[in-house]
Every structure is written in structure tokens, then in C-alpha cells.
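stage 2 :: seqdesign
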């Protein structure tokens, strides 16, 4: 029988149910049992990524057409909400602290729309979702009912008065919350409030339990370069507190209008959103009772696709991995860091990482940590000196990768599915890697029902999208792969079927009528050209780009990430995708249209000629096949499987740029 963890938030005594009310057995506190959640708050309060009226609209639509469709319509208006609401990568910090056993109860504080809570319910027997905003809680309750989820318990309550018994949870999640605790009480110092909050978390953790905190670094490089702090103003994060306080008092004004970067309706009377350095966080956690603290670096705690221990070795590997991927496509901070990463020694990179990483992942254990899933499989792998965790896509069936490093080289790749829904895809992908990917399987093990593969890839480094030689090697590999998978079926029939479906998809995309008409003409043009070509039908890797390829010193390639493999497809699809990805990585979208018409960057010119000459194609085919390829990738996000996530706006931007004059 499940223990009742909920207690009176004021005196911590037991609550007694009487009809649709919970009454404290010692004081006069009363709580309401609402439809799908417990309401411990009598006051109104709003905080959110969208205005209250829009939030109410999402709830009404969720009741009528289901939460998935309602969220889909919201994302069409607010594309950046897709990552927050649908990206399963948001959970991937969990694998740094997931226990081998003892995962009975978890609490997600400040759960928002509930995406983390719903994912945690796949790993914990009981998950408690604590959120203060009524509209968010009501959305969670609707989703819980529609998803038929029984082990999620939703509570509307105050973070500063945690309504739970002592020693209740194996894990407490505080993701993007600690920095906002200071706005809970304007009469008390924010740092004191944060310490009181952490002491309360310590109280409700079981012995050996873990507090996870995802949060920004006060001196994160993006803040130093002018990014807005939580106050809605730039530079307040690393200013002395009294100067930040003056800035908020006299500069930060909402003017009575709701702004997405401010998220609340009320004016602030002082600077309340305290963040810290690595040393500052350690002091804050240790003074709150936590003795064992493990920090990890990440770029975005809200989407921790990459993370690792704070050392120069894994950070240098990471910078090499994304260097050409970020060039031209990312901002100033990304270009500065990746450029420095090529020349600076590990010791210097360690200092940069320690002091200027954008975000931290903290794992704070009560009375020491127990046996963890991560510690177990890392111990069973080859000897290593550092590691980098890299998530696959944000889809439901994707995977987690650990690169084990020794002296900066990959000595092993450890991988496992994120959720049980991905096991079948994971096993199928592994068979493809063994067949096509130039990798050997060291061993396969199971830990408490979780299947883990230990692979031995080529001891290589990430492929550079700005290298003419390495782009040529990639296209040579692609041509060889297509030769090995050539089919007898007609390519025309496949492209004709795709064209029909893609024209239907156009109806639902946020494009102008003129853009849609141009794209339809391009689809017909391509189909007409395919009818005249002698192109074979081949298999498709599905995500063939520089960031998914490693190269060893003998120029052998190890191709990663086969989760989007398709047995049948056009030879053009993988090549065009590789070309587009390289084009944006090298020079951004500034010269996109002219490049598509033949003005290729030098890094891609030789590789393009190699592919076009091999299949006896004209350069113009790249221009006409671009909308077809972009739409094929967009179609993945509308297939209803939940497998794919992200970059929807990226492909829409490609289509808009292509269709521009």
C-alpha cells in the first residue's frame, strides 16, 4: 500500500479526508480535492511562458480535442514552446543520478506544464508534481486523465511550504526553480529564502536520496556577452547585488503589459533572482545540509543534450564535436568558445568551463550517494579519463550516448534507450551500425532490465563540416552505402507518392500562399526530372550530417545515429540533407539562396561535384530537390508516433529562404 506522503503545509501534521476536503488533524488548515489534483492554495497567481488568456485557451482546446492537438496548435504560434513542451531530452540529466534500486518516490518542484513529471513517471513508482499556477495544474490534470497515467500525483502548493512528510523522496527535482525562490516573499532576503527552501528539501529526502538542481551560472559566457538575466535585463546577474537591485527598481518596467521574457504580471520591487558561481552554489548547498555534491557542466539545463564532469578533456572533445556545426549557425559566444577550443590546452579549458559554462547540473546527496546506474556501466567499460554524455534526438524512442575518452580520443561508446518505448528501435539501430557503421560491439549487458551496449568505434574525432577533404570522404561513404543498398523498385513511384503527401502537408504549415505555390511547383518539377533520370532506389540513413560522423587517423568513418534509417528512399535525400546541413553550419542563412543556385562554399564544392558526377546530375537538381528534402524531414514531426522532435522551425526557415526572391 502506498504511503501517504502529503501533510499539512503549515504544521506538517496528517491530513484527513472529508468529502472533497482535506482537513489538518491539528490546525485549521483546509485543502480542496479538485478534479485530478489537490489544491493547497486559496490565492490566485499567474506565471507562465504565454499570457493567461492563451493558457486558458489551451485548456479549453485540450478538453475538446485532446492536449496533443491543442499543444500542436500552440506551437504553430509559438515555435520555441516546442522544446519546452515536447522535448524528452529535458529529462536526460536523470542518468547521472538514476539509482539501480530505490526509485519508489520522486518529487518535481515547480513542474510547470508537467513534461518532466510525466517522463519521470516512466522511472519512478510514484511521482509527485508540485506546481503553484492553477492553469498549469489544470493542464497537467487533463493530460494525466487523457494519458491514463496512474502513478502521477498532482498538487497545487507553495514551494516555500513543502506539504510532505520527513524522509519521503528518493529524488527531488528542482529544475529552473531555485533562482526564482526569491520572488516568493519580498520581505526576506533571496539568499536566505533559497537556503530555507533547500533545508526543506533536505528534510523531505530519504537517507541517500538526491536533490537535482538545473540552473544557470551567474558568470555564464552568454550573460557576459549581454544575454538577458532572469530579471528581464542584461548584466544584472553578475553585477553586485545592490547595483542589480537599483537596475531592477528603476529600469525594469512591464508597463502593465505581459512580456514573454518576464513571465509574470506584477512589477518587481527589487532584484530577487539570485544565481551563483560554482563555488557559490557549493557553499549554498553545503550550508543547507548537503555533504556530497557532484556538479556537471551543460549548455542549457532546460535542454541538457550535452553534459559531463567539469574537466578540460571532455569539454575539448565537445568543442571539436560541434565546432563546424556551430560555425555561422550559432551566436558570438558559440564561435568564440569553439575557436578557442581548437588551440587551448585542457587546463585552460577547464578554467573556462569552471567559471563560464552557461549552466550547471548539480546532484546533491543526503548522507552520501548509493549505487547508481551510471557508476555501474562506467565501471564495466574500458578504462577512461573522462566522458561526455550526448543525447540522441528528443523523441520518445531515442537513446542516450556516453563517449568514454582517454587522452581526448574515443575509446568506447556506451548507449541505451531513453525509455522502454525505444527498445525496439534501439536494437534495430544497433544491427544497422554493425552492418554499415564501421564499429565493433564489445559487449551487451542488462542492468535492472535496462539494455546497454558497449561499442568500440574508430578512435577518431568528429568530422569537420568546413573541411573539403572530410566532406569528400563523407560523400564517398554515402555513395558506397547507396551502392550496397541499391534496390530494383522504381524511384519514380516513391517520389510520386511522397509528392502527393507533401502537398497535403503544405496545407498545415505556417507559410505564405505564394511560398506554398512555389514549393508545389518545385515538387512537380522534381518529379518530372526524376521521370527522366536513371537514379536507383536506395536505403536512407535519415540523419546524415557531419555531427553524426567520426573520422579516425586512417580516414575511416564511423557513422552515428541510425534511428531514422529507411529501407527505401531516393539517393538525393541523404545527399541534399548533408549539403543543407553543411551549408547552414558553414555560413548560416545569409548566403543560403545564392548557394543553392550554384555558388557553393569551397568546403562543399568538391563533395558536390563528386556526387553529381557519379549520378550524372546537373547542379540545378540541388535547388529543385531542397523543398522535397526539407518537407520529408518536416513530415516526421506530424506522423503522430512521438518519435521525432525539434528543428521544425529550422526546416520551415529553409523552405522560406528557398522560396524568397
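stage 2 :: out
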Amino acid at each position: 500500500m502506498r504511503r501517504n506522503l502529503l501533510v499539512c503545509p503549515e504544521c506538517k501534521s496528517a491530513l484527513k479526508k472529508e468529502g472533497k476536503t482535506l482537513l489538518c488533524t491539528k490546525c485549521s488548515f483546509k485543502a480542496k480535492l479538485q478534479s485530478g489534483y489537490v489544491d493547497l492554495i486559496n490565492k490566485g497567481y499567474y506565471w507562465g511562458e504565454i499570457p493567461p488568456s492563451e493558457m486558458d485557451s489551451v485548456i479549453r482546446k485540450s478538453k475538446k480535442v485532446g492536449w496533443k492537438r491543442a499543444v500542436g496548435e500552440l506551437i504553430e504560434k509559438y515555435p520555441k514552446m516546442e522544446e519546452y513542451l515536447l522535448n524528452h531530452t529535458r529529462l536526460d540529466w536523470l542518468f547521472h543520478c538514476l539509482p539501480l534500486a530505490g526509485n519508489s518516490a520522486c518529487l518535481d518542484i515547480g513542474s510547470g506544464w508537467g513534461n518532466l513529471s510525466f517522463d519521470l513517471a516512466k522511472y519512478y513508482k510514484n511521482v509527485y508534481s508540485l506546481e503553484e499556477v492553477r492553469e498549469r495544474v489544470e493542464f497537467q490534470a487533463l493530460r494525466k486523465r487523457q494519458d491514463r497515467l496512474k502513478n502521477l500525483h498532482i498538487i497545487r502548493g507553495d514551494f516555500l511550504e513543502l506539504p510532505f512528510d520527513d524522509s519521503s523522496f528518493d529524488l527531488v527535482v528542482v529544475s529552473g526553480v531555485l533562482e526564482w525562490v526569491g520572488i516568493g516573499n519580498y520581505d526576506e532576503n533571496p539568499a536566505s529564502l533559497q537556503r530555507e527552501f533547500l533545508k526543506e528539501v533536505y528534510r523531505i529526502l530519504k537517507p541517500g536520496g538526491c536533490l537535482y538542481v538545473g540552473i544557470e551560472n551567474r558568470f555564464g559566457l552568454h550573460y557576459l556577452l549581454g544575454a538577458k538575466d532572469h530579471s528581464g535585463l542584461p548584466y544584472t546577474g553578475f553585477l553586485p547585488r545592490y547595483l542589480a537591485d537599483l537596475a531592477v527598481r528603476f529600469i525594469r518596467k512591464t508597463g502593465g503589459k505581459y512580456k514573454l521574457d518576464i513571465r509574470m504580471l506584477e512589477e518587481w520591487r527589487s532584484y530577487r533572482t539570485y544565481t551563483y558561481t560554482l563555488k557559490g552554489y557549493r557553499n549554498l548547498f553545503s550550508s543547507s545540509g548537503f555533504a556530497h555534491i557532484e556538479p556537471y557542466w551543460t549548455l542549457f539545463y532546460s535542454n541538457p543534450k550535452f553534459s559531463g564532469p567539469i574537466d578540460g578533456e571532455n569539454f575539448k572533445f565537445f568543442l571539436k564535436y560541434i565546432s563546424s556545426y556551430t560555425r555561422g549557425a550559432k551566436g558570438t559566444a558559440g564561435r568564440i568558445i569553439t575557436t578557442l577550443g581548437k588551440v587551448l590546452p585542457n587546463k585552460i579549458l577547464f578554467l573556462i568551463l569552471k567559471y563560464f559554462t552557461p549552466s550547471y547540473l548539480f546532484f546533491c546527496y543526503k548522507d552520501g550517494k548509493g549505487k547508481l546506474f551510471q557508476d555501474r556501466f562506467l565501471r564495466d567499460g574500458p578504462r577512461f579519463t573522462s566522458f561526455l554524455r550526448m543525447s540522441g534526438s528528443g523523441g520518445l524512442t531515442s537513446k542516450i550516448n556516453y563517449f568514454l575518452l582517454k587522452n581526448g580520443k574515443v575509446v568506447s561508446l556506451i548507449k541505451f534507450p531513453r525509455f522502454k518505448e525505444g527498445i525496439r528501435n534501439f536494437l534495430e539501430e544497433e544491427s544497422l551500425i554493425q552492418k554499415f557503421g564501421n564499429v565493433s560491439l564489445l559487449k551487451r549487458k542488462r542492468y535492472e532490465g535496462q539494455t546497454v551496449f558497449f561499442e568500440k568505434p574508430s578512435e577518431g574525432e568528429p568530422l569537420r563540416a568546413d573541411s573539403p577533404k572530410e566532406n569528400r570522404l563523407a560523400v564517398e561513404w554515402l555513395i558506397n552505402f547507396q551502392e550496397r543498398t541499391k534496390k530494383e523498385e522504381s524511384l519514380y513511384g516513391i517520389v510520386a507518392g511522397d509528392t502527393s503527401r507533401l502537398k497535403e502537408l503544405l496545407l498545415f504549415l505556417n507559410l505564405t500562399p505564394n511560398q506554398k505555390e512555389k514549393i508545389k511547383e518545385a515538387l512537380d518539377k522534381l518529379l518530372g526530372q526524376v521521370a527522366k533520370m536513371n537514379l536507383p532506389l536506395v536505403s536512407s540513413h535519415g540523419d546524415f550530417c557531419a555531427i553524426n560522423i567520426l573520422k579516425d587517423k586512417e580516414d575511416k568513418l564511423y557513422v552515428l545515429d541510425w534511428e531514422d534509417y529507411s529501407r527505401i528512399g531516393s539517393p538525393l535525400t541523404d545527399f541534399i540533407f548533408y549539403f543543407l546541413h553543411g551549408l547552414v553550419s558553414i555560413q548560416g542563412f545569409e548566403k543560403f539562396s545564392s548557394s543553392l543556385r550554384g555558388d557553393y562554399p569551397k568546403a562543399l564544392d568538391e563533395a558536390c561535384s563528386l556526387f553529381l558526377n557519379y549520378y550524372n546530375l546537373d547542379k540545378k537538381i540541388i535547388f529543385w530537390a531542397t523543398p522535397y528534402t526539407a518537407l520529408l524531414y518536416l513530415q516526421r514531426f506530424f506522423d503522430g508516433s512521438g518519435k521525432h522532435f525539434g528543428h521544425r522551425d529550422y526546416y520551415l526557415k529553409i523552405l522560406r529562404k528557398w522560396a524568397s526572391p
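stage 3 :: structure notes
- Confidence is low (pLDDT under 50) at residues 326-330.
- The longest strand covers residues 205-216.
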